[in-house]
Specification:
The complex is a heterodimer of chains A (260) and B (252). Chain A is mainly α. Chain A has two domains: 1-30; 35-255, MetI-like (MetI-like fold, Orthogonal Bundle). Chain A is 82% helix and 0% strand. Chain A has ten helices and no strands. Chain A has helices spanning 2-27, 37-46, 48-82, 84-99, 102-113, 118-143, 147-155, 160-198, 206-215, 219-248. The radius of gyration of chain A is 23 Å and the shape is flat. The model of chain A has no long low-confidence stretch (mean pLDDT 91). Chain B is α/β, with parallel strands linked by helices and 252 residues long. Chain B has a domain at 84-149. In chain B, 38% of the residues lie in helices and 24% in strands. In chain B, helix 2 crosses helix 3 and helix 3 packs across helix 4. The longest helix of chain B has 19 residues, at 231-249. The chains are: A mainly alpha (260), B alpha/beta (252). Chain A binds chain B through residues 146, 148-149, 151-158, 162, 166-167, 170, 173, 250-253, 256, and chain B through 52, 55-57, 74, 76, 78, 80, 82, 84-87, 95-96, 98-100, 127-129, 147.
């Protein structure tokens, strides 16, 4: 079953690439419309140093934005779980930040941080996109603690801190991990969209590489950058899914394989 | 029961919930050290409410809860096992000790001992999801006795278990009660269970809950399967059943 699961999609992928190569050659499709896979591969090799530099630039901001979203999202959720007033005050603004299209805020952010620090603008914009799922998921998780367990903690004179640390946070962990999977993908999307909207600083990221290649009709490079982006997105997803399994497989229903 | 030192005195307790539901009205009840008291009544008569007020988890809207000898260490067993799914059996049983800042190695040793007492030696590292309903309830009982309580409060703990498991746990509970000199308040809606376990059965009338009958039973030392099948058990059960029926009919 597992080998079939691997073989079937890979075979389909190879078939599509072969057909693509054949059709492009057969109909003589110009390379600035749709380059053949072989041309994309060649371009990938030729532009390799440039593409890797761009990948590193983008990935660095993605990682930083995600880390920032994680820390601030969890901190915000803990604050909300401890103070109803804080939740009432801040939650609506978190929602407003979330629903405003990031492309629309981008010029303002760039203006504020200055054109010399576009990287910071990208970081802020990606953070805005990635922050909300963590905040909202963790808040829900912290509130989902079993009432009877809360009573039990109170019976033994547990402090707020003990209830938070030993009960609410472990209860929230599956919610947080799920939110991280969403946020991880959004961090990548956030950085690319921000690069599109804000341009890029001295370093060129993958988003800007795509725009630039498009302007110069280097469609093969565009495809190469796109392929890297897909691989990055998949890698982020698998990394976070692996983390989720690692932390939950011993106890949480979602991560346990059932005996049949 | 009069000769026993009182451990708990409820005086004219009333509880009206915020929505206006009057759960308990003018309930007075004294409990002596070492008693095994069942609170018996139909669902919705406020038995659990009484138990939660005794535990201090709910505040009565009338009357007072008094502890003549000072508030003792309490243990509480819920209707559900109420275990932390992310923690193994040992860590679940250790929880009350950790919350009371007992040293880790001592807490581990006492938790392991409590698990052994309920027949779960060797299951220290098992997570709740891997345990059966009866075993989960045993972990829950081990957790309640690990902190050496004087008074054990139990809220229909065996209601969801199958009959055989339930009888086995009844016997284990009586053993713990006898060995530790516990006082137990046991909420149930089962005539047979209360007859088997108790030294005293307090029957509650429904809505608002008040005492319908207070029946003394022979002390439940050394009860076993033989008692369940004896004519004496049948007589006692009939007496309790009649009292429950009478209490139901007195509903306002």
């Amino acid at each position: 079953m597992n080998t079939l699961r691997l073989i079937v999609p890979v075979a389909l992928g190879i078939a599509v690439i072969v057909a693509w190569e054949f059709l492009v050659r057969h109909f003589g499709v110009p390379k600035f419309v749709l380059p053949a896979p072989s041309l994309i591969a060649a371009d990938f090799v030729q532009e390799f140093p440039k593409l890797m530099a761009a990948t590193w630039t983008t990935l660095r901001i993605v990682a930083l934005a995600f880390a920032l979203a994680l820390v601030s999202g969890v901190a915000g959720a803990v604050l909300f779980s401890q103070s109803r007033i804080a939740e009432l005050a801040f939650y609506p603004y978190a929602v407003i930040l979330q629903v405003t299209p990031v492309v629309a805020i981008a010029p303002l952010i760039v203006l504020w941080v200055g054109y010399d620090h576009v990287e910071r603008a990208l970081l802020i914009l990606a953070w805005i996109v990635a922050f909300f799922p963590i905040l909202s998921g963790t808040t829900l998780g912290l509130k989902s603690a079993d009432f009877n367990l809360i009573d039990l903690f109170r019976l033994y004179g547990a402090s707020r801190w003990q209830i938070l640390w030993r009960l609410r946070l472990p209860t929230a962990l599956p919610y947080l991990l799920n939110a991280m999977k969403i946020s991880g993908g959004l961090s990548l999307i956030g950085v690319i969209v921000a690069e599109f909207a804000a341009g890029t600083g001295s370093d060129t990221g993958l988003g800007w590489t795509i725009i630039e290649s498009g302007n110069r009709l280097h469609i093969a490079t565009m495809f190469a950058a796109l392929a890297i982006l897909s691989v990055l997105g998949i890698a982020i997803f698998f990394l976070l899914t692996g983390l989720e399994w690692l932390l939950l497989h011993r106890w949480h229903e979602s991560a346990v394989t059932r005996e049949r | 029961m009069d000769h026993k030192r009182p451990i708990l005195q409820l005086s004219h307790i009333g509880k009206t919930f915020e929505g206006g539901l009057k759960a308990i009205a003018d309930l007075s009840l004294g409990i002596g050290e070492g008693e095994f008291v069942s609170l018996l009544g139909p669902s919705g008569c406020g038995k659990s409410t009484v138990l939660r007020m005794v535990a201090g988890l709910l505040q009565p809207t009338a009357g007072i809860v008094e502890w003549p000898g000072g508030r003792p260490e309490l243990g509480f067993v819920f209707q559900e096992p109420t275990l932390m799914p992310w923690a193994d059996a040992l860590a679940n049983v250790r929880l009350p000790l950790q919350l009371e800042h007992v040293r880790r190695d001592e807490a581990d040793a006492r938790a392991a001992q409590a698990l052994a007492r309920v027949g779960l030696a060797g299951f220290e590292r098992a997570y709740p999801r891997a345990l059966s309903g009866g075993m989960k309830m045993r972990v829950s009982i081990a957790r309640a006795v690990a902190a050496n309580p004087k008074l054990l409060l139990m809220d229909e703990p065996f209601a969801a278990l199958d009959e055989l498991t339930r009888q086995a746990l009844n016997d284990d509970l009586l053993k713990l009660w006898a060995e530790d000199g516990l006082t137990v308040i046991f909420v149930t809606h089962s005539v047979f269970e209360s007859t088997y376990l108790s030294s005293r059965i307090v029957v509650l009338t429904p809505r608002p809950g008040a005492i319908g009958a207070d029946i003394a039973m022979p002390p439940p030392h050394g009860r076993d399967r033989g008692y369940r099948l004896s004519p004496e058990f049948a007589d006692n059960a009939r007496k309790v059943s009649d009292a429950l029926r009478a209490a139901m009919e007195r509903r306002p």
